[in-house]
Specification:
The structure holds two protein chains of two kinds.
Chain A (H helix, E strand, L loop, with lengths): L2 H16 L10 H24 L3 H27 L4 H9 L5 H10 L1
Chain B lengths: L1 H13 L4 H21 L2 H17 L10 H23 L10 H9 L15 H13 L3 H12 L4 H8 L3 H24 L2
Helix pairs in contact in B: 1-2, 2-3, 2-4, 3-4, 4-7, 4-8, 7-9, 8-9
Classes of the chains: A mainly alpha, B mainly alpha.
Chain lengths: 111, 194
């Protein structure tokens, strides 16, 4: 492609930009903008109010829940450890000394 | 100096007199509409001008009054248009090649016969000229597209464009040069495909 052709294409492209159609705005478009600004301001004010709401009760509830779960786990663990082993287990373990792997297997086989 | 007047109006608007904003919009609507209309499809002009003025209001506290409100809002309009093209590019696939049907091919073949200094008004097919320009812009990134439109077709000073795009002056110059080179390459590729 020659420089001459390239220059011509460039000038045509430039012309393309310059001949974009003009735009005639509809009447009253400014009122829409003002209304939108007011709407967004109200929405932001509402969001701001929500943010400023005290979050303490919600946080307190979560903390109480966490503490309750921890306490419940501790109680269950204590009870589990405090309750003596069942008689079946006692019999099983009394007969065979639990001192090596074979003994473990024997106990397991009886179970 | 009329921009001092704008600054005064802006201060009143910030103090709650929102109705005065309609006056500012009326005063500069022509500038902003013209700027946006050159950059985006016709059906997108009004929503983007709307968005520009809403954003301008939200940033009004940052308007210092050193330049007319219209120039300041124009920067916001440029950024709004750039954001529009970013969204468009994300959602739509750009055209891969020059759509060279027979009619357009003939049109391109006739180009060497035209005088280089030929008046643009005498071009036989304005629609094709617009299409060529649109296609070229469509091959650039949204930022480069905004840059080219502003520098080469709106004749905005580089400093102004750099401020609008949030770039340094050097970066703006380099990107303008590269974008122009890319467009030149694209035009060459059209010529070679004939």
């Amino acid at each position: 492609m020659s420089n001459h052709q390239l220059k011509k294409l460039e000038s045509v492209a430039r012309h393309g930009f310059l001949t974009q159609a003009g735009f005639i705005p509809p009447a009253g478009w400014q009122d829409e903008v003002i209304a939108d600004i007011r709407r967004r301001a109200h929405a932001e004010k509402f969001a701001g109010n929500l943010k400023s709401l005290p979050l303490l009760p919600l946080r307190l509830v979560w903390r109480l829940a966490a503490v309750s779960v921890t306490v419940a786990v501790l109680v269950c663990l204590t009870l589990y450890l405090a309750v003596p082993e069942s008689a079946v287990n006692d019999n099983l373990t009394n007969e065979v000394a639990v001192d090596n792997f074979d003994n473990y297997l024997q106990i397991a086989a009886r179970l | 100096m009329h921009h001092h007047e704008d600054a005064g109006i802006a201060a009143k608007i910030l103090h709650g007199d929102l109705e005065l904003y309609a006056g500012l919009m009326n005063k500069y609507q022509q500038t902003i509409f013209a700027l946006v209309a050159k950059r985006v499809p016709e059906n997108e002009v009004l929503p983007l001008v709307h968005e520009t003025f809403v954003q301008a209001y939200r940033s009004l506290a940052g308007y210092s009054g050193k330049v007319p409100f219209g120039n300041w809002a124009a920067r916001i309009a440029i950024r709004t248009c750039c954001a529009y093209w970013r969204r468009e590019y994300r959602h739509k696939k750009r055209s891969a090649g020059w759509p060279a049907d027979e009619e357009r091919r003939q049109w391109l073949e006739q180009l060497p016969d035209l005088n280089v200094n030929h008046s643009a008004d005498c071009l036989t097919n304005r629609q094709d000229a617009v299409m060529l320009a649109e296609w070229l812009l469509g091959q650039l990134s949204p930022e480069n597209r905004t840059l080219i439109e502003s520098v080469y077709f709106d004749d905005l000073p580089l400093k102004e464009v750099a401020a609008a795009l949030g770039w340094s002056l050097v970066k703006t110059k380099v990107r303008a040069l590269r974008a122009r080179q890319k467009m030149r390459e694209l035009l060459k590729s059209i010529g070679e495909s004939l």
